[in-house]
Specification:
Length: 272
Amino acid sequence: MKTAKSSSPSDTAPESPLDEADRYRAPALDKGLDILELLSEQKEGLTRAEIMKALGRNASEIYRMLERLVARQYVVRSAGGDRYSLSLKLFALAHRHPPMNRFISAAMPVMQGFAEEAEQSCHLTVYDRGNLLVIAQVDGPGTWGLSIRLGSRVGLVDTASGQVTLAFQSEAERGRMLAEHTKVKGEIALGDALLASTFAEIRARGHLRKDSAQTFGVTDVTFPILGPAGHAIAALTTPFMRRIDEYVAPSLEQVTTMLEDAARKLSMHEHG
């Protein structure tokens, strides 16, 4: 007659967290996420060979995964086809969910502080389907001023916000954004050579300050809101209007410094 086999502690012990994680592994998903996380840290993208080396994966694994990520528009190829970088699709998806609300909530006190100190309005824009979307706006404290209506769609190419947003992108992402761009009402067309030189100047200076292309007597000042990889995830702009009466308001130089400080507070690379 057989006796019942006694159970050992190992037979009845609960699974460790590691065992649980191993049970639900999804290697293909992990590979895709590894690539996205790796590219999120790169300003100018990586070649396929560099991705393989960084992740310790073989060529066929990386090739298949990259092709799917490109097809789904999470990753874009450079014009030469040899480098890969993140698109803004993940950021665009976040627009539909609470992270965007949290971003706006974090931005509003900073923007309100700027508006009070600078005595100017300001607005925050993000890239959205070929142009820019105004997602936050704060009026200055005075009795008059210029403001951009919340929810407005503004031009990508001829506005200070658009040019700064484009300047602080990888070459591949900038090309994709320009390819997706459609002109808005009144938008001024600019040639490729002029745009390229403008982007280089903006990157060298770190911001853009120019006469508005839409409104006479206004100087647009724009700084990028930078993500962890140094790319612009948004742009912060003040349409500066100079007082000509006896009231002494902050100067254009002072307002530019104030806006730079506000943009730095909102940029993600400042927080590690």
